[in-house]
Amino acid sequence: MNPLSIEVGDALLGERLDRAVSVVADVSRSVAGRTIELGLVLVNGEVKRSKSLRLALGDLLEVDMVPSTPVFHPSIELSILYFDEALLLVDKPAGLIVHANTLSDQTPTLASAVVMIDPGIATVGDEPALRPGIYQRLDKSTSGVMGVARTQEAFVSLKEQVGSHAMRRQYRALVEGELDEDEGVIDAPLGRDQRSRTRVAVIAEGRHAVTYFRVIERFDGYSYVELTLETGRTHQIRVHMSAIGHPLVGDRAYGGDPSLLEDRVFLHSHVLGLTHPVHGAFLQVTSPLPPELTAVLVKLADRSARA
């Protein structure tokens, strides 16, 4: 992409640098801010990294925007579970991240893959350069059904449903140990773990978080459970189950044993239910358990039968 260059006139006189970049490059303020942080904005030939810098009359503003859409990797194959004029529901494989965190990150992502399916999604969302159409996310190690908005109107509706906890999000997981109860609720606030900024922990001053669980099947030393989210905090299921002494199989970050499943966490987004943003009907889509997780259950069932 060729650099954008403009001489500051009356329209941008006195504007903050991030606001000016947003206007000149036609991107959101947050994308503009990241572009500045990456050293891609020059004022009078000098790199400027202060987003609050005020522009003067006659300043030469140059913006070297990196490609707005991450590079698509041809090996990414997404199974489409539902598709219409407003929605794209895909079956996310484990190991694939949902979106990049910076404009310079060219790691293959689910976001880049859906833009290859529908290029129009590239303009949808609060920050389409990084998260086109993405109103929710799944952890890299989590598989299963995930929704993407195809229009801005659908994005607004779906984001509101997430915020109001109106979506039905149901997961399947294998946890260590046998739960005492067949079903129950975990109501424990979550926040960033002060000892590790990449982890989440149950903390008194954290955000409200509620998870419902139901045991589907019991094995010797393990429980196969259905989990329904009332809220959708980062790592919510993983932290909640670990907090009650039943970490997810394969979840090294929260105390899970990887011996049964080395390459991922046993967590699958099984059901997604939502109000259709166009016609208002309730839509529910299910993703079948992937083969690598089914194989673990078969192994445990066989082990239990032999005991």
From TrEMBL:
Gene3D superfamilies found in the cross-reference section: Pseudouridine synthase, RNA-binding S4 domain
EC nos: 5.4.99.-
Swiss-Prot/TrEMBL catalytic activity: a uridine in RNA = a pseudouridine in RNA
Keyword field: Isomerase, RNA-binding
Pfam family, one: PseudoU_synth_2
Domain RNA-binding S4: 15-72
Presence of the UniProt keyword Lipid metabolism in the record: no
Top-rank taxon, per record: Bacteria
SUPFAM superfamilies membership: Alpha-L RNA-binding motif, Pseudouridine synthase
Role played: Responsible for synthesis of pseudouridine from uracil.
Family: Belongs to the pseudouridine synthase RluA family.
Protein's name according to its UniProt entry: Pseudouridine synthase
Taxon lineage: Bacteria, Bacillati, Actinomycetota, Acidimicrobiia, Acidimicrobiales
